[in-house]
Every structure is written in structure tokens, then in C-alpha cells.
Amino acid sequence: MGLVINKTYFTKKDSIVRQIWGKADTILFIFAGTAAEFALNKAVDWLYYTGRLPKDPLGRLFSTVNYAKVIVFAEEKAAFQAIDQMNKIHAKIEKNRGFKIPEWAYRDVLFMLIDYSIRAFEALERKLTLKEKEEVLSVFLKVGHGMKIGGLPKDFEGWKQQRKIQLQENFEYSEFTKDLFLQYKKHLGVARYRLLLEAQILMAPKRVKELLNFREHSVLITVIPLYRLSGSFKIDYILKELILPKDYKNDIKALDH
């Protein structure tokens, strides 16, 4: 008989995080939410520093989301190697620029992924239980500890309090925000850009809506039940064809796990 090796994965096989990050639909909504927050973050100048974000904002955001997805589904050793690689990339950028990325900026991105993982799943599927939300938090805190980010919360209630403070203190509408939304429009085209905005209105916390002057409710609230139905009849891929630029269709296909 051959030797059976039990693999240890970064997230448990029955984890709600795998359900959230295993479907392109959910990840697209996470993508939409993060696109708004990246633009508002006071540390967005770090993303402009290399020039890659304004040149290819969709590709840059896809790479961030893809990194998170790879880590979620990887074996534990491979996941920590990916996190270590991320640390090296950031260290190189810091060395080239001559000073460090503020620790709160790392926390902001981590908290953003936690928040939109929950918001996207709840918008498209169902409400999560507190235990499931704590599972989402636990997985991303594991990423945060691997990145050696300090000041992380101990539990979900602590995260909610920190997230509330973070949204008040670390976000503003700036020239970078204005430029980045112009880049989104340029790369998506007018119709797809409107869809992005509607997804952001649906997903955004109150503070983000205020800063971006968004209305309270998205028209997608009436469309989502039809989208769920389209999935039941396996025609949701047609909608994705309409929604996404051709250049990113392969990226989207790769998101379904």
C-alpha cells in the first residue's frame, strides 16, 4: 500500500470562506467594493507610486483579489509562501521609495477583504451567521499575522469597532480618487462603468457612500433575484459576457473554483 499523506490547507475544506471565494459572481462583487475603497484610501499614493495602478486599474485590482483567492485555496505551506512573496514585493517598493508603507494601510486592505467577503455573499446568497462571519475573520487574520501586521482585533466585535474607526479616519475623496474613477470609466466603457457604480452602491458602507456621493439604494436590488434565477438555468455566463471587457474574461473564468 502507498503512503497516504494528509494535506493541510490554509482554510478548512468545509469553510464558508471557500464558498465565498469559490464563485466568480461573489468575487466580482468583492472586486467592485474594493475598487471604491482603494480609490478613497489615504495611502492610495503607494498604489500610484509604481505607475501600475493608473495604467491598468482593473488588472491591478484583479491581482490583489487573485492573491487572496490563491491563499484561501492553497495548501498551508504554499499559502504562507505566497504571503512571504507579498511581503518581499512590498519591502522592495518601500526600499525604492525610501520609507515604509504605514501599518494602518495594510490593516485597511485586510479589513476591506473581510468586509466585502461578507457583504458580497450576503448580497448574492444569504445572510451569514455570526459563527460564519467569525470564520471569515479568522482566515484573514491568519493572513494578517503572516504579513506581520500589528494591531489586529481578537474577535469579530473588536473588528467591527476597528473597521468603524478606520472608515472615519483613513478615507477621503482626493485627486487620486477622481483620477482612479476616470481610469475605471476609461477601461470599462460607459455601460460597464455604470454597472460597477451600481455594484459599489449596493456594497458600500455608509461612510464610503458619503465620500463618493452615492445614493442610498442600488438598482441591482431588483436585478439580483433574476441573476440568481439565471444561474439556476446555467445562463449566467451570458450575463458575464455582457458585463465584462473581453481582456478580462479569462481572469473571470479563472475565478470559479
Short structural summary:
This is ER-bound oxygenase mpaB/mpaB'/Rubber oxygenase catalytic domain-containing protein. This protein has helices at residues 16-20, 24-40, 44-49, 52-55, 57-73, 76-97, 103-124, 130-146, 156-169, 175-188, 190-203, 206-212, 220-232, 236-243, 249-255.
Q: What would you note in describing this structure?
A:
The chain has helices at 16-20, 24-40, 44-49, 52-55, 57-73, 76-97, 103-124, 130-146, 156-169, 175-188, 190-203, 206-212, 220-232, 236-243, 249-255. The mean pLDDT is 85. It has one domain (16-255). It is mainly α and 257 residues long. The chain has 15 helices and no strands.
Helix proportion: over 70%
- How many helices? 15
- Number of E-type strands: 0
Percent in strands:
under 5%
Number of domains: 1
String of helices and strands: HHHHHHHHHHHHHHH
Q: What overall geometry do the principal axes of the alpha carbons give?
A: globular
Q: State mean pLDDT (0 to 100 scale).
A: 85
* Gap between N and C termini: 31 Å
Give me the secondary-structure category. mainly alpha
Global Rg: 18 Å
Q: Detail the poorly predicted runs.
A: none
Largest sheet: none
